[in-house]
Amino acid sequence: MTDHDATTFSYLCIGCPLGCRLEVDEDDHGDIIEIRGSGCRKGDRYAKQEHADPRRNVTTTVAISGGLWPRLPVKTSSEIPKDQVLAACEALRQVRVQAPVKMGDVVVDDLLGTGCSVVATRHMPAIT
Ligand code: SF4
User: Fold this and answer.
1) Could you write out the three-class secondary structure of 81-99?
2) What's this model's pTM, rounded to 2 decimal places?
3) Ligand 1: does its nearest atom lie under 6 Å from the Cβ of 49?
4) What is the rounded CA–CA span in Å between residue 120 and residue 114?
5) How far apart (Å, rounded) are the C-alpha atoms in residues 74 and 103?
6) DSSP state of 125
7) pLDDT tens-digit profile of 10-27?
8) Whose CA is nearest to atom 8 of ligand 1?
9) CA distances (Å), 118 to each of 17, 58, 67, 112, in order?
10) b or e along 86-98 (b: 16 or more beta carbons within 10 Å of the residue's beta carbon)?
């Protein structure tokens, strides 16, 4: 295969602070033919995942009523498709929960049909 037949995509590995710059060559059929730049095997796995199906965790806050603080820190229980992160943040802006909440409580189930839950990342007692 010649260079002419390959398309190169660039990614930054976030697996560790070294931040290796990864290059993925893809052929005309969309198949990966080479990965360059990985400092370890984790980088190869990351490049394949990022190229085929990029995903991210979402960490944010939602409104809470009757709690010690007005916002409750939350996160997704697993990564969701990267192209749904913005919609997920928008959806979570509409959410309001009621105190008390325990760390790990599910705040939203099946976020945007991803099958992923959103859970509280701290306790929030009710004000009395
Ligand atoms: S490829 Fe390996 S060494 Fe390089 S940033 Fe990723 S995890 Fe770190």
Assistant:
1) EHHHHHHHHHHHHCCEEEC
2) 0.82
3) no
4) 18
5) 9
6) P
7) 999 999 999 999 999 999
8) 16
9) 27, 9, 18, 11
10) eebeebbeebebe
